[in-house]
Design goal:
- The chain is an alpha+beta fold.
- It has three domains: about 55 residues, Electron transport complex subunit B, putative Fe-S cluster (3-methyladenine DNA Glycosylase II, Chain A, domain 3), CATH 1.10.15; about 90 residues, Alpha-Beta Plaits; about 100 residues, 2-Layer Sandwich (Alpha-Beta Plaits).
- Strands 1-4 form a two-stranded antiparallel ribbon. Strands 2-3 form a two-stranded antiparallel ribbon.
- Strand 6 and strand 7 form a beta hairpin.
- Helix 2 packs across helix 3 and helix 2 packs antiparallel against helix 4.
- The longest helix has 30 residues.
- It is elongated.
- The N and C termini lie far apart (about 150 Å).
């Protein structure tokens, strides 16, 4: 009996050692050696794991950065240029500085501008609410249930209980893009923060035409084209009946803001309040002179084209 127990122990021990050896050999054969620079890069990352860089988290970003031939297509919006300089130093790459971005809510459909036609009493979720009949006449505005607020890890966006729409605290915004992905109506956009934080944007995405958009909200863009005709820099275009400002072309002159009859264009962080009357007068005078010059040019062209009558001897 004793010998049976001893042999059982010996066999089990030997089998265990053989299996351990086999596992060790297999592990050595198929082990993946991770580039030590991945860990170094990950250490300088902010650790938010927000996905704003386009990867699943900071570790995935570090792996991609190490494997990439350069950092042109890799950028951490949370860490910004300072973190990217550290990453570039570790990898021996050069990095181009990027202008800081900030989230912008393209809706000014406050409770005052866009009255409710009924009280929504369903689940407090924008993704749920977007599937039911709208509680205002606007089918494109902020739903106010706070999916963007829940998605933000930095407390940078909240639904104002008085206004009824999402607002951004730019001092906390890291431009990670989580709120952009969370909004089912595509109202949130990442835009260039602008020099000293100054920027222009159209706070509306109502795609319906003038009369319907006007009825839906007191601050809606009605596609009248006044801003387009006013802008001298080609920064304003119309997409599906609504104006859009291209921040790469905008010169921050604020003329479009002054001329907009609906107050749909917003200027942010300018040191002085906008003198709409003065700006309007300047724009109208310029347009008047342009019309006069055009009329004079046409008259001169017509005069030059008119045949000269020959006098008889």
């Amino acid at each position: 009996m004793t010998s049976t127990i001893i042999w059982t122990i010996v066999i089990i021990t030997a089998l265990g050692l053989l299996l351990a050896l086999a596992l060790y050999l297999v592990a050595q054969r198929f082990k993946v050696v991770e580039d030590p620079r991945i860990e170094e890069v990950e250490k300088v990352m902010p650790g938010a794991n927000c996905g704003g860089c386009g990867f699943a988290g900071c570790h995935a970003f570090a792996e991609a950065a190490v494997k990439a031939p350069n950092l042109d297509n890799n950028f951490c919006p949370v860490g910004g240029n300072e973190v990217m300089k550290k990453v570039a130093a570790i990898l021996g790459y050069e990095v181009k500085e990027k202008a800081p971005m900030v989230a912008v809510v393209r809706c000014n459909g406050t409770c005052e501008n866009r009255p409710r036609i009924y009280e929504y009493d369903g689940a407090r979720s924008c993704k749920t609410k977007v599937g039911v009949a709208p509680d205002t006449l606007c089918r494109f505005g902020c739903l106010g249930c706070g999916d963007c607020e829940a998605a933000c890890q930095f407390g940078a966006i909240k639904v104002d209980p008085v206004l009824g729409i999402a607002t951004v605290d730019e001092t906390k915004c890291t431009a990670c893009g989580a709120c952009v992905k969370a909004c089912p109506r595509g109202l949130i956009e990442l835009r260039n923060k602008g020099p000293r934080g100054m920027r222009m944007f159209v706070a509306c995405r109502n795609l319906t035409k003038g009369a319907e958009a006007k009825e839906a909200c007191d601050a809606s863009c009605i596609g009248c084209g006044i801003c387009y005709k006013t802008c001298q820099h080609g920064a304003i275009q119309f997409l599906n009946n609504v104006a859009y400002i291209d921040y790469t072309k905008c010169k921050l002159c604020r003329e479009c803001e002054a001329m907009c009859p609906r107050g749909a264009i917003h200027g942010v962080n300018f040191p002085k309040p906008l003198d709409k009357a003065a700006v309007k007068a300047r724009v109208l005078e310029r347009q008047k002179k342009a019309r006069e010059a055009e009329a004079a040019a046409k008259a001169a062209e017509a005069s030059a084209a008119k045949p000269v009558e020959k006098k008889e001897d």
